[in-house]
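Here is the promised in-class demo. Please do not try to memorize the tokens; focus on the logic of going from shape to residues.
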């Protein structure tokens, strides 16, 4: 009798565990996907958060270009379509994620951050698109993210012996009560995971021009007559620059760069700004446009030829950030290095705005 009772209690315990780990309708709860800030030219970062049931067997993440989703009749490729990018996360990661868990499996309301990019080639506990195919190549080379491109993502929690897989969920949150189509159909309340495709899109950084930077010292010695030393040639690609609300010729810009600041904050800022604008216009390093816009807005109608401000009146940290950029310590590498560093926050600039600065 006691043995039979223990067996019954054991069966109840197993059933209770299965119920605790499973979501509604016997499936795991859908995952919440969020696009994070600061994408790179060839990667995006996505936060993946489990529901109350967790994702104790790991999860799968799939993606495709938003333009491909639209061209495919506003629908995802079928699961067996080789064009569908997909990766499985199950096991132990080596280095991915912001404070990554010991394993990809997520507990109740567990969360991890994944950078979808080429670093997944060296990751452990992953398989699929960007993982090593066993021969030293990507499993799906065409799934590398392209610069300046919008992507849609979806994910599901893997099934286990305790519960079925979750329904697909997409980036964002449900704005009303929603019921997803099969497979593993599920219902969510407003504010829950987005379960209706395509969800929000995630974009890689839109600064795709590459480029690199030189310091103000370089531009001061590789410009027009008066700004050349030795056998240097004029590498300035502009005939004038609009700084603040004032247009300066190359000769005037050369005069400004050659004039010591001697405590004049306007020249301190102007020297770094001119270098940054030349780096953007001539070297394609346009990822610091936000800093350039901030400096131009501050200068406004002030003349770099005759004006003066105290250095402590300058916007806090702006000169340092521009100097870092020009030295290759910001979002772009110095031109002595091989490539452009990953950009920071994605920034789309109208061509008209750029054209008004660089003529």
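The designed amino acids, position by position:
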């Amino acid at each position: 009798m006691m043995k039979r009772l223990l067996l019954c209690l054991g069966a109840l315990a197993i059933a209770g565990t299965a119920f605790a780990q499973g979501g509604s309708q016997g499936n795991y709860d859908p995952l919440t996907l969020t696009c994070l800030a600061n994408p790179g030219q060839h990667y995006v970062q996505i936060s993946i958060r489990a529901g109350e049931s967790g994702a104790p067997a790991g999860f799968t993440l799939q993606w495709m270009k938003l333009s491909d989703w639209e061209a495919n009749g506003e629908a995802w490729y079928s699961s067996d379509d080789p064009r569908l990018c997909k990766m499985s996360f199950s096991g132990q990661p080596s280095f991915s994620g912001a404070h990554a868990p010991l394993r990809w499996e997520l507990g109740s309301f567990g969360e991890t951050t994944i950078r979808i990019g080429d670093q997944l080639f060296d990751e452990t506990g992953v398989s699929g698109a960007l993982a090593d195919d066993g021969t030293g190549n990507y499993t799906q080379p065409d799934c590398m993210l392209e610069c300046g491109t919008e992507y849609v993502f979806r994910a599901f929690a893997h099934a286990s012996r305790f519960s079925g897989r979750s329904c697909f969920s997409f980036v964002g949150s449900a704005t009303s009560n929603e019921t997803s189509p099969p497979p593993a159909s599920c219902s969510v309340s407003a504010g829950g995971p987005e379960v209706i495709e395509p969800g929000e899109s995630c974009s890689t950084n839109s600064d795709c021009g590459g480029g690199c930077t030189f310091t103000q010292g370089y531009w001061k010695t590789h410009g027009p007559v008066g700004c050349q030393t030795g056998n240097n040639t004029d590498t300035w690609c502009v005939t004038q620059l609009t700084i603040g609300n004032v247009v300066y010729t190359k000769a005037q810009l050369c005069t400004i760069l050659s004039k010591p600041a001697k405590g004049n904050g306007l020249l301190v800022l102007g020297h770094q700004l001119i270098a940054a604008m030349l780096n953007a216009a001539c070297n394609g390093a346009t990822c610091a446009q936000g800093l350039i816009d901030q400096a131009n807005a501050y200068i406004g109608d002030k003349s770099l030829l005759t004006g003066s401000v105290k250095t402590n009146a300058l916007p806090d940290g702006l000169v340092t950030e521009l100097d870092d950029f020009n030295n290759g310590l910001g979002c772009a590498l110095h031109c002595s290095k091989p490539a452009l560093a990953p950009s920071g926050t994605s920034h789309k600039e109208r061509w008209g705005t750029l054209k008004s600065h660089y003529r």
